Structures are given as structure tokens and as C-alpha cells.
Amino acid sequence: MSDLTSSTPDWLVQGDNAWQLTAATLVALQSIPGLALIYAGLVKKKWAINSMFMVFYAFAMVLICWVIYAYKVGFGEYMLPFAGRPGPVLTMKYELEQSNLPSAGVMQNYPKSTMIYFQFVFAAITLVLIAGAFLARMDLRAWMLFVPLWLTFSYCIGAYSIWGGGFLFKLGVIDYSGGYVIHLSSGTAGFAGAYFVGPRLKQDRVNFQPNNVALVMAGAGILWVGWNGFNGGDPYAASPDAGAAVLNTNVCTAMSMLTWTLMDVIFYRKPSILGAVNGIITGLVAITPAAGVVTGWGAIIFGACSGSIPWLSMNLMGKKWRLFTHYIDDALGITHTHMVAGFLGGFLVGIFADSEGCAAFGLTNRGGAKDGNGRQVWVQIVGGLFVIGWNLFWTPAILLFIKYVCRIPLRMTEEQLLIGDDAIHGEEAYCFNDDVVGLEPSITARERAAEKMHQIHKGHDYDPEPAILEGRDIEAQASSEEGRVGGVRPDESGLKKD
Fold first, then answer.
1. DSSP string covering 269-313
2. Residue 338 domain boundaries
3. Where are the alpha helices (DSSP H) in 233-272?
4. pLDDT at site 449
5. What's the CATH code of the domain at 297?
6. Structure confidence by residue, pLDDT tens digits, 269-298
């Protein structure tokens, strides 16, 4: 009986395979249902279905592209310094043979099918994160085309360059589990793409209350616990370093949440639960490039930084800078929670990487600056700048291709923006009172939109223009008492509900 037909080939370590599949499943749960629940709860009621659909569509489309050609671009044989040779991974022989990353020169003790799925869930969540910047206005057809194009020309490039054996891998950039490949790239794409997609309706920017905070917290809990697989799976084995990565991930996240909450109390006099979610997310993001190569003390330092620096970015830059108040409408603040926190974590690992942790992870790096390897700091900066620059070019290029070559608008029509889910999907998220005897039917989203459109045509004081707000600082006008989860403010902000 050959290795391929044996249930236990010589190279298979069943514990490694079991952990890798478990870790991959935990990461998949972060997208569906984790981020789907967060998005559905954070947006206005009229956008709950569309927001969840964007998540599920990205998850499905990335998987099909992944197995047909994209996995080999990110983790296959050398073609270019930043890309592998594309091709399918669908034959049974290929799925059953021992996993290896040919350009990186490493092998794993489980089948390639396990590695393919593990790497897929990382690719999928990256696109799901980008969606957070485009919610409540991006045309669904444009999103459907954007997903495979961005996966091909951005994600796969970063994955091969840093993880798959490309030029940044050879330079020695440390990205333990995706601080650069996933979070910095998605945050940069959200930042750049939000400008080209255009803003939400003016009224939606001023009043974008979350429709279900309990849903947000359920999703945030799934996201936090799922990160055990996100970072714990990247040694590609059930190794001691996997345990260290899981512990450090949770230590950093706890410290980040507490720091963000303290910042809210100091500056706004109240602890915010949505602010706490921000702290959780930035902590998870910042520790990702460093999880298994820093000490527990290092994780605490990471958490203190990730709970404060992105807080400042979101509450000062996001609310005061004209760039964000007038030009870039990042609906859920992906710029701050992923671009800022991702680069921060990648930079800090250059300082705090521990030589013993690096050796346990299988790296030849001599640790970071704290262990006398100052070179690692500028190596990390070079890696981060490459990811930022690549995405600042390719994200707009892809969106402009969709708009001008494919002739698909990037932004929904005014009527669709007024109606929401019912216009796009013919469905509404909450229908608890439908067909209840004795209740008068409530006004529908379409009827509300029709009335607003009528006001527009009669020249009343409703302004549908999505362009720059004439000298009005929306964010200052709608300032809240705490940091937001991507533009969402709690009831204390004084804004009217939807």
C-alpha cells in the first residue's frame, strides 16, 4: 500500500493534522459568523442583510479562486520574486500528498489539503475585513468583481512575498500570522478604496447608530476566541510555540481592551462597550505579526500600544482631519483598527522579537533590537512599506478598472441607498411583527425612500449629494463620548436613531 492510499503514511503526524484543521476551522468561524454578526449589528437596520451577504460572498468566491489558481500564486513554485506559478490544486493525488512550501523550502507533517484550507481561511478573512470599509454604499456587482481581482493582484502577492518564499521572506521580514499580509493590506485597501467608492449618504454618515449591539458583542467574542486558531496555527504544528502564540495573543488582547477602555474613561468620562470592541480588535491585530516570537512581557507592551495609538488615530485623525471627514468615508474604521494597528505590530516585532521565540518558530533571525539585532527594525519597516505601497496602487487600479472598463458603478444609486436591503435583496433583516392580527403595518423602507425622493424632487431640504460636504465637518458635528467601532457611536452621542 502506497503512502497516498494509506490512512497513516509515514510522514503524517496526526496531532499536527488535527490541530491544523481545528485552527483553520476557528479562523473560518471568525468570518462566518463572527464578522458577519459584527457587521450586521454595527450598521443601520436597513443594511444588515447586505453587510452579511458581502461577507458570505467573499468567503465563497475566495475559496473557488483559491483551489483553481490562487493557492499556487501565494504558496507554489517560484515564478517571480513576489508571485508563484498559478494552477489548480484539485486532483486527489495533490490533495493527499505531504504538504510543502516549495519556494520557502519547508514541509509539514500533514496533507496538502489541510494546508490549502488553512491558508484559504486567511485569504478569505482579508477580503471580509476590506468589506468593512465599503459597507452601506458599495454596489454589490462591483464587490463581486473586486473580490477575485484583489485576491489575485494583492493578497496572493503579499502572501508569496512574505510567507511563500518570496523576496521579503528572504530579506527576513517577520510576520508570524498576518499582521502585514492580512491586516496591513486590508486596512490600506479599505483606506484607499473608500475614497474611490465614495461616501455613504450624508444622513447615514451623521446618524449611523448600530442596530444591534448584542449582535456585535457575540461576533466580537467569536472573533477573539477564533484568534487562537489564527495565531496558534501558524507554527504549522501542535508545537510549544503554538501554545506560546495562543497565550500571548490573549494577553495582548486583554491589555489592549483595558487600555482602550481607560482612554475612554480618561477623555470621555464613560467606559464604552463599543470602544472595548475596538480595543479587542486592535490588540488581536497588533500581536498577530509577533504572537509566537515575543515574550509575555512583550505581549503586554504590545497591548498597551495597540490600545492607545489606534485610539488616538481614530479619535483625533478620524474625527478631526479633513482627509477623513470630507474625502475618505471608511465606514467601520478599518484604517485605524487594521492599517494603523497592523503596521504598529509589525514595527514593534522588530524591537521585541525574542531570539528563543524565533528559534522555536523555526526562524534564523537573531531576534529583534532588544536582543542586539537592530537590523530587524528596518527590515520590518521595509516590509510594511512594500505592503502599503502595493495596495495603494493596486486597490485604486482594480476599482477604476471595474468602473471604467467593466462599466460597473462602484456606488449604489441614491434610491438604493435610501431603501437599503429591500432594494438590493428584496429582504429585510427584522420581521418580528409581520402578519400579527390587530397591528397596523409599519411604513416600509421603500415607502420611506419614496417619500424622501418626493421631497428631493419638490426641492425640500433633503440633500442627496454624496460629494464633499460644503465646509461641514460631519464627524465634529456628530462627535461622541468615546472611540467608535468604525464610525459607529453609542446612544450617548446625541444622534437620532434610524
1. SS--HHHHHHHHHHHHHHHTTTTTTS-HHHHHHHHHHHTTHHHHI
2. 14-405
3. 240-268
4. 67
5. 1.10.3430.10
6. 999 999 999 999 999 999 999 999 999 999
